[in-house]
Structures are given as C-alpha cells and as structure tokens.
Hints:
This protein is α+β, with helices and mostly antiparallel strands. The protein folds into two domains: 2-111, no CATH class; 127-359, Hypothetical protein af1432, CATH 1.10.3210.10. Helix content is 52%, strand content 6%. It has helices at residues 2-7, 15-35, 58-71, 84-95, 130-146, 156-171, 189-207, 212-223, 234-237, 245-251, 254-263, 271-278, 300-315, 326-335, 343-359; strands at residues 38-43, 46-49, 52-53, 73-78, 107-111. The protein is elongated. The two termini are 34 Å apart.
Amino acid sequence: xxxxxxxxxxxxxxxxxxxxxxxxxxxxxxxxxxxxxxxxxxxxxxxxxxxxxxxxxxxxxxxxxxxxxxxxxxxxxxxxxxxxxxxxxxxxxxxxxxxxxxxxxxxxxxxxxxxxxxxxxxxxxxxxxxxxxxxxxxxxxxxxxxxxxxxxxxxxxxxxxxxxxxxxxxxxxxxxxxxxxxxxxxxxxxxxxxxxxxxxxxxxxxxxxxxxxxxxxxxxxxxxxxxxxxxxxxxxxxxxxxxxxxxxxxxxxxxxxxxxxxxxxxxxxxxxxxxxxxxxxxxxxxxxxxxxxxxxxxxxxxxxxxxxxxxxxxxxxxxxxxxxxxxxxxxxxxxxxxxxxxxxxxxxxxxxxxxxxxxx
Length: 360
C-alpha cells in the first residue's frame, strides 16, 4: 500500500517508486518461499489470503479493499517466477486512475466489473464533503498515534496516505479553511491538531514552490511534530486549571522527547526529528528547548510548521481558553514577525489565509 500510495505522487521511474517496489518484491518472495503462489480474493467485504480469511486488516487493509472494489477486481494471483518489473508495473496499473490492468505472465486478476478509467487514490473526494474527508484523515492519525510506543514500529504507510490525500485535495483547489477540523473533545485535540498543522504547513509550502519529496517529507514531519506529547501525562495536557511551574517545565520537554523518539526510526524522513525538536524555537533564537548551538536558526521547514502550529493552537478551543477568530489570530501573529516568525513566511501565510477567507 505504501508503494501504491506513492504512485499517486511520483512518476514510475522515480527513485521512491523503484525503492518501494524493490522492498515489496523482496517481501513477496519471502512469502512465496513459505506459501508458494499467492492468491488474494475479495468476497463481499472479506479479504481472503490463500483460502484463509484475514481477520485484522487495519486501515491499510481496508484501503486495499476499497481500491479492489473501485478497480472492479475480486481476485489477484501472484505466481512463482514473477519478476521485479512485473510487480512494479502491476502496482502502477493498480494505482493509476487512467490505467487499466495490463496482462502479465505471472500475475492474474479476476475482473467482476470493468470500469473505464480505473481508479486513482481518493480522486472521488467531493469538495462539498470535506468534513467527512477530514474526519477520515484524523481517524488515520489517531490509529497511527495510538500505536506509538518505544516498543512498536511507527506506521509510515498510514502517514504517507494522509499526506498524499491532502496533496490530491489541494490539486482540486479545495478551500484551506474548509479542510481544517474543529476540536470536538479535549481527548481528540492531539490528532486533530496534527492533521490541521500538516494541512497548514503543506499549503504554505506549496505556495512558495516546495513540492515532490520535500513536500511529502514536510507533511509527514508536520503530522509528527507534537509526538513528544504522547510521553507526557494526560493529566497535565488536559488540565483545566492553571499549570504549575513544574508542569510547564514538563510540557517544555515534549520537543526533546519527540525528537529522540523519531530519530530512532530510520524509515522516517530525516526532517521529522528536526521539526519535532525545533517547532517551538523562534525566529529570533528564543523559545524552547534551549539549544547550545551558537547562532544556528530553525530549519526553514520548522519555521513553516511553527507558523501552522501557532495558528491552529489559537483557533482551537482549549481547557484554559476559548478559540480566537481568524482576523484576531493573524493580527496577533503580525505583531510577532521578526520575533516569533520569519517575516517572509508569515506574510505568505497571511496572504493565503486572507485569500481563503475571500473565497469561503
């Protein structure tokens, strides 16, 4: 699924597609050494692997089922002798809206309803139903976050899916304000905030010409910028009264906690721990955590995420204060340019947000 999702972003000759296809092929060969030919069937809503139902498919398994249905397939057979290029080209066919499934010597597909044009990831998103779309993305964030542990591998595919879905929605010229989700409960703040910060960060980045791999890496990093808060007591995070000095000091450690956790995962973009560490640093060198690195400034992407993080925090209703309106927030942020924010990035952000208001 990670390979399928990335096919929606990159050309078939891109190094990302080549690397992911190669890893997928290696995994397939290991499965074939154990099971022989691989038979995948879809019977109504049940996924069947070599005659046995797959009981716990997770979000990625459900996405796979959705693609099978929209491609009109109910069976895929992968036969021993399959070549790397066969698998890669089949995955490209499987993911591409414009491409039908070609014939391959060692891959057979069962077609129950041939649909012209096939299917491309989330191209059926309706711009008048962005609430449902955003809720789905937040649920994926929640699934990823709830499985975060020092002892578990992070679900990178889930993060990639969210980022790619957002990019495809941007291409439909969706209004950025309609893609931001309200916080429905204090317990949901972490997931909703992560999704909103990713949307706001990627939208800023696209406006200044950032694209392709850097945009993808920024999106994943923004989704994980606050992951360090998962290592802080919920009693502190959700406290309705005034925090003590000791509690604030614990909150201030979350960038460090997040950077340490993310730096141990070699499958993540190298940008992710940097953004986690720096998103509360400020343009003038203040902020937290304090780093003994001389005059080193925030990474450009950390500056972008810091703007998104600040904006979404002020527009969200929190236990200790009410949310603010867009004009009030932008006025506050404008007063802080050159101190908290890169003035060029801030002016870009204000411009695109005011444009969004005018089109709402």
